[in-house]
Amino acid sequence: MSVTVRVPAKVNVQLAVGAARPDGFHDLANVFLAVGLYDEVTVEAADSLSLTCTGPGGVAVPEVPLDRTNLAARAAIALAARHGLGDPKVRIHIAKDIPVAGGMAGGSADAAGALVACDALWGTHASREELLDICAELGSDVPFSLVGGAALGTGRGEQLEPLDVGGRFWWVFAVADGGLSTPAVYREFDRLSPEAPEPVASPALLEALRTGDVAALAATVTNDLQPAALSLFPSLKDTLDAGTAAGAAAALVSGSGPTTAFLAADEAAARRVADALAASGTCRAVRVAASPAPGATLL
Ligand SMILES: C[C@](O)(CO)[C@H](O)COP(=O)(O)OP(=O)(O)OC[C@H]1O[C@@H](n2ccc(N)nc2=O)[C@H](O)[C@@H]1O
Ligand SMILES: Nc1ncnc2c1ncn2[C@@H]1O[C@H](COP(=O)(O)OP(=O)(O)OP(=O)(O)O)[C@@H](O)[C@H]1O
């Protein structure tokens, strides 16, 4: 028997970042929105833990580790340990469609997917709270990958409050040539903003989400990590400019980057922006997706 779980990517429509905490993390006001780009995690019983990963068209994805450091493997190990199952005897396959190291929480999605899939395979019946606890141990973005939709993340982003979304938002994502390390971007943030104020969610942005108002959301999206990502990856400015010139309602770096995100008025506008970005030569690939999207879902 095998179990497959589908998990979404995310974009941060507001990422307000405070000063570094003593534990090295940063307090956030992190408004997550799940978008309709998905990885699928399939698990089946085996003699020992093993992992495979393929991208679109079944090609290998060399950036993704296939050992026990992979977040999906770590999720299986954590669930098995909590339930006294020892080393997990499971074969995990990740069908990856979320850009890797792109600031879209692809690894986090795989962790949430593997957790839900193993829980179903093993019949461990973990409660929602237990699943969220394990997610938070695995990474700051992982709890949101489990719940999907839209949520305000506080603390280091792991404490979630679900948010209402009153409509559909269309996005274009420009995948950069190369990746950015999340810790490196946070370190650059510290260098550029040593006196960062306490992060606060924007009431106008939450209202724009609640009413499904694209123009209002476009006017209120912000990412405090954007200057740091641009400092480490200056050519992202060309991508942002190309999307803006093509008529995007808003252009921003997605999370810690280097994927850039463009909010469009509707699906037709998103397709036009995507075509212009693809022709601009400022990015490696372009994806169109709608939000919100559901969290980890058993198929
Ligand atoms: C940039 C975002 O993707 C926005 O959602 C997240 O804040 C990053 O979440 P993530 O990749 O799940 O991050 P984690 O795996 O928890 O942490 C990786 C590293 O990012 C930095 N980090 C992460 C989250 C946070 N609130 N403050 C941080 O400073 C720390 O250096 C940490 O060692
Ligand atoms: N299942 C996984 N999928 C992708 N990368 C993984 C996975 N497990 C571990 N990694 C490692 O994590 C790094 C970051 O990958 P990921 O795609 O999660 O980045 P990201 O989208 O920038 O994450 P975030 O938005 O949460 O900061 C990769 O370079 C890879 O070495």
TrEMBL record:
Keyword presence, Kinase: yes
Keywords: Kinase, Transferase
Keyword Kinase: yes
EC numbers, comma separated: 2.7.1.148
Entry protein name: 4-(Cytidine 5'-diphospho)-2-C-methyl-D-erythritol kinase
Organism, scientific name: Streptomyces citrinus
Higher taxonomy: Bacteria, Bacillati, Actinomycetota, Actinomycetes, Kitasatosporales
